[in-house]
Amino acid sequence: MENPFRSEAAAYRFLLVTIGALALIVAAKLLLGNVAALIVFVLELAAVVVFYVRQRSERPEPMMADHVGAPDEKRILVIANETVGGTALRNEIARHSEGFSTDVLVVCPALNSRLRTWTSDEDGARAAASERLERSLGRLRELGIDAAGEVGESDPVQCIEDALRTFGADEIVIATHPEGRSHWLERRVVETARERFAVPITHVVVDLEAERAAAPG
Length: 217
Hints:
By secondary structure, the protein is α/β, with parallel strands linked by helices.
């Protein structure tokens, strides 16, 4: 699930402000009555709306990742779920790896329905993502690409942020279904990632239906 706060400190400040706001409402009710409490509540609600609008309009500095290793070494972060085993994605990873000593980290977001996410019922989604990931890593090894993998949060942009903190990617590859069949494209995942991260990003479209139709037999 995407974290609505940019840091733990921001979440802690929000908690303190919430407690303070509730205290003001209670104090107004006890000292001045229900009408005063309602006025305080409306003013606080208006302040929250103004703050939220300003936060949404302000763009934070893009997150960077420091290069790790020698000049001929490259770290590639791959974000994919159902498309993780697609031929187009494997070919793109191989192309980016040419001429480099490459470390590849493949992250599969555990895609889930909002209802199951809210109820913390993520076991099935994580198991399915893990199975797809293992198959994909095996196919990459067949191409001579030694890749590591992990299952991430349901939100792909949050997965990128989490991985950059520990992996330090030089490049990011995001794989999606074609337009019209991709929830990630509808949610502007690629555009959002390019706004939030100061790392080269390649978008790969994987048409699994076309690949299956073209497969022998």
